Automatic annotation (TrEMBL):
UniProt KW keywords: Hydrolase
UniProt-recorded name of the protein: Alpha/beta hydrolase
Listed InterPro entries: AB_hydrolase_1, AB_hydrolase_fold, AB_hydrolase_sf
Organism (species): Rhodococcoides kroppenstedtii
Gene Ontology molecular functions: hydrolase activity
Length: 299
């Protein structure tokens, strides 16, 4: 299966890792591998333009669908962890035969996962790009995990069964994503996104991951205290709509602090909504290219 881009073909593969079938959308090139990890509810569709541009530049890159998202196999009993997603990233690299240290790109919640991978698998990671990454200084949850996870599954399954998921799929997509590719959405991508947003397994995976957010943030903070980040290039890229608001300014400050904490470079991508890879794919590719060059110079 292939997806046509402007001048490069995005190929699609399924690899079995950690006991489940994982889908990747991939472009082939000569660079160190670039791994694109989307945030909550994201799939390879959000990375099509970035993948195409990376392929045009001769890069080796793939977008990874976590279980239940995109075209990856659901795992209804699983709850995501930072360590587990770090292992999944490395397992996919192994399955694809990509042995060079990879540049990991994490959007939103996936910023937790790629930073975790860099700390837990330092020999496999050559650089990090955090795209409008989640930031939590003192995370916590009022409701115990043992209650939250069953509630998440029950909520998702009930919403699917009574038709709320199908009824609200388009509205939720527009509310959550907002971003639009520079060339707009082709009709076939709109149809595919509608199909994905109506899958019961998709809603359950997204709801469980959302309800696990505090646990993931706590796990990463513990990992930060126990395991140092290796010396590698890091870029923290914060999205800004270009409209000045108090909460927008606060978000930029949090992202700047994250970059300082990780010893990385801080950039603002504007104008852009949260899904930077959709709104500003060319900026994302330039940022990745800079990290690839920096990582190559350090090797």
């Amino acid at each position: 299966m292939t997806t046509g881009g402007a001048s490069v073909t995005v190929s699609h593969e399924t690899v079995t890792v950690l006991g489940s079938a994982v889908h990747v959308a991939r472009v082939h090139g000569d660079s160190a591998p670039v791994v694109l990890c989307g945030g909550l509810g994201s799939s390879w569709h959000d990375w099509v333009d970035v993948l195409t541009l990376l392929g045009d530049a001769g890069c080796s890159a793939f977008a990874l669908d976590r279980p239940g998202f995109g075209d990856s196999e659901p795992r209804p009993g699983d709850v995501p962890t930072v360590a587990g997603e770090a292992r999944r990233i490395v397992a996919v690299l192994d399955a694809l035969g990509l042995t060079r240290p990879a540049v990991l790109v994490g959007h939103s919640m996936a910023g937790f996962y790629v930073e975790g991978a860099a700390r837990l698998e330092p020999d496999r990671v050559g650089g990090l790009v955090l795209l409008d990454s989640s930031v939590e200084k003192s995370p916590g949850a009022l409701i115990p995990r043992r209650l939250r996870m069953p509630a998440a599954r029950a909520l998702a399954r009930t919403s699917s069964a009574v038709g709320l998921q199908a009824l609200g799929a388009d509205a939720v997509r527009h509310l959550v994503v907002q971003a639009v590719p520079p060339g707009g959405y082709p009709p076939e991508r709109i149809d595919e996104l509608r199909r994905l947003y109506r899958e019961p397994a998709y809603l359950e995976a997204a709801t469980v991951e959302y309800f696990a957010y505090a646990d993931l943030a706590v796990e990463l903070n513990r990992l930060r205290r126990a395991t140092p980040l290796p010396a590698l290039p890091v870029v923290v890229a914060a999205a800004h709509t270009s409209h000045r608001t108090p909460w927008g300014a606060r978000w930029i400050r949090k992202q700047r602090r994250l970059a300082s904490y990780l010893g990385g470079r801080f950039v603002v991508v504007s104008p852009s909504h949260h899904h930077v890879m959709i709104d500003q794919p060319a900026v994302v590719v330039r940022t990745v290219d800079a990290v690839l060059r920096d990582a190559s110079g350090r090797a």
